Amino acid sequence: MGIRLGENQYGKAEVRLVHVNRDTDVHRIKDVNVTSQLRGDLETVHTLGDNTTCLPTDTQKNTVYAKAREWGGVGAIEDFALRLARHFVGEHDYVDGARQEIHEYAWDRITTSDGPHDHAFSRRGGETRTTVVTKDAEGEWVVSGLEGLTVLKSTGSEFHGYPKTKYTTLQETTDRILATDVSARWRYVGVDHDYDAVYASVRALMLEAFATTHSLALQQSLYEMGRSVLKSHPEIAEVRFSMPNKHHFLVDLSPFGLDNPNEVFFAADRPYGKIEATVERDDAPAPGNAWKTVPGFL
Question: Is the backbone of residue 22 left (phi > 0), alpha (psi -120 to 50) or beta?
């Protein structure tokens, strides 16, 4: 029986970087978490402990910080990830592939009586912007997205007509609360885009579709959110969603002599339904290695 080394990569995970742009008195903050991973001729590193072709993970960390200074900031996280990937592959002949994953945390200016403050900020909720850039001999791929976008509709949602078995206890409803935490990833066609503008548009389109779709199932809302994005953005080939159904159950107040006309609910955190699907163009180009390094999605 032969034994051999399989696919592998290594790098520095979760490099926390905060960049402050001080070009004017109105400062701009970029708060990101970078994970850099490299691939290449690493056989002897694993089998013999020969580090000749092993660029230290500490060097990868330092490169992230140095390039943020050399390049005048981070900019769109997709552009920063692409430049990092190209640097690692282009500058080191023993590196033939790079995966750069970045999460961005949004900060809003604190509003004062005089308007938005020049250099005071508050961090926005749990929502995170993401990107995974992969570069190798076959090409470059960008998969961007968001996670932790919590949304809720207090009406305009139904759920009925589903199969019933002897284990079914869920009651049909024509008026329920619909809530979820949206995690979405979209695959770009090509790599030359205004990523900040596309991100803002995609987020707005998803929110509008969620709000305006009279939903008969969370799956229907998911599909309409993806369809809205693809109709407006030909540069996006597909959108993949993972959306938990954050159940809200009507509380029985009859023991207390009270009615409950869809006003008082118990918000259950678990167990929860988990809805996952891809909305894609039927003529979309093949994904290549785009999704290979994006774990947790279909």
Answer: alpha
Q: Is 247 a catalytic residue?
A: yes
For residue 296, the one-letter residue type is: G
Nearest to 86 by CA among 7, 142, 46: 142
Say how far apart CA 237 and CA 190 lie, in whole Å: 10
**Candidate list 44, 57, 59, 128, residue with the active-site label:** 57
Concerning whether 248 is annotated as a catalytic residue, the answer is no
12, 19, 67, 233: which is the annotated catalytic residue? 12
pLDDT tens digits, 1-10: 899 999 999 9
Calpha distance 278→292 (Å, rounded):
15
Q: State how far the Cα of 23 lies from the Cα of 33, in Å rounded to an integer.
A: 23
**236 exposure class (CB count in 10 Å sphere: 0-12, 13-18, 19+):** buried
The helix or strand, by DSSP H or E, that contains position 86, with its residue range, turns out to be helix 77-91
* pTM (predicted TM-score): 0.92
Other Cβ atoms within 10 Å of 255 Cβ, number: 6
Look at residue 298 and tell me whether its pLDDT is greater than 70.
Answer: no
Question: How far, in Å, are 98, 164, 165, 172, 178 from residue 168 at the CA level?
Answer: 49, 6, 5, 11, 20
DSSP 262: S
Residue where the block lists tokens 């008195």:
25
The SS3 call for residue 97 is: strand
Q: Is 57 a catalytic residue?
A: yes
151 close to 218: Cβ distance less than 8 angstroms: no
Residue-level pLDDT at 124:
87
CA angle 137, 7, 186 (to 5 degrees): 60
